[in-house]
Write a structure and sequence with these properties.
Length: 84
């Protein structure tokens, strides 16, 4: 298959888990918080790789803790996506 280069973003999505839906004027306690891999570039490159394509992802990623976490996630869970 042809090599595909995806140019896009990679983001850390912080998700707050609630027991019940939000309603205006109500205070709700969070029961958890999750960190997930997101961004348009990652959300495009990963399914293409899982479909068997050779994929390279060109995306700006910082060198801070969040950037290191994002690179780790791309390497660990989306094996085969080359990050440029």
């Amino acid at each position: 298959m042809a090599r595909i280069v995806v140019i896009g973003s990679v983001a850390q999505d912080d998700v707050v888990v609630l027991r019940q839906p939000l309603r205006e004027g109500r205070h709700l306690d969070a029961v958890g918080c999750e960190r997930r891999l997101g961004g348009g570039g990652a959300n495009t490159a990963i399914p293409l790789r899982h479909a068997g394509h050779e994929v390279a992802l060109l995306a700006p990623i910082g060198s801070d803790e969040s950037g290191r976490w994002l690179l780790d996630q791309l390497r660990r869970w989306q094996a085969g996506v080359e990050v440029i």
